[in-house]
Structures are given as C-alpha cells and as structure tokens.
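Deliverable D5.2: sample structural annotation.
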Amino acid sequence: MFGLDGGRLRRGGARPRASAPETFGSPAFKAEHCATTTDSGPADWKPANHAFWCAYAKDYTHIKSVWKLTTTADEKSALSSMFR
C-alpha cells in the first residue's frame, strides 16, 4: 500500500514520521540541537544560548500538540522556566 506524505511517496499505512527539516525549522533546532541531543526534552536539555530558550519552548510545545503527545510534570516545569 502506498500513500502520499508531504508530496513524497511512502509505503505502508503507518503514521508518517516528521523529518527534522520539516518539523524543527526554528534556530533553536539547528546544528547545536542536533549535535548535542537525541530524544532529550526540556527537562533534560536546553539550548546553551538562552536567547533561543523561548523559541525552543514554543516549538517543543507546538510539536507535542500537533502529534498529540503527553507532557510530563518535569517538562512542564522546564518549559515554564524557558518562557520567562
């Protein structure tokens, strides 16, 4: 079975995975993020440059919302501190 995923042909009926360039467009998710993290969230990792904290937190919450993912209490606390 084939389907379209963002204009690309994909196999199977599984939910498509978002690729980094499509999902993480803000400066907070550029080379620094990709080079220093894996599956870490804001409770475990924050951009070294505090100027990107708000953008990172905004993008992180947007992605969680789009994909209907849950947020832990530690993530919520870390995100709150990043929006200040």
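Annotation notes: The first helix runs from residue 20 to 23. Helices lie at 20-23, 31-36, 53-66, 73-82.
The annotation will be released with the project's public dataset once the embargo ends.
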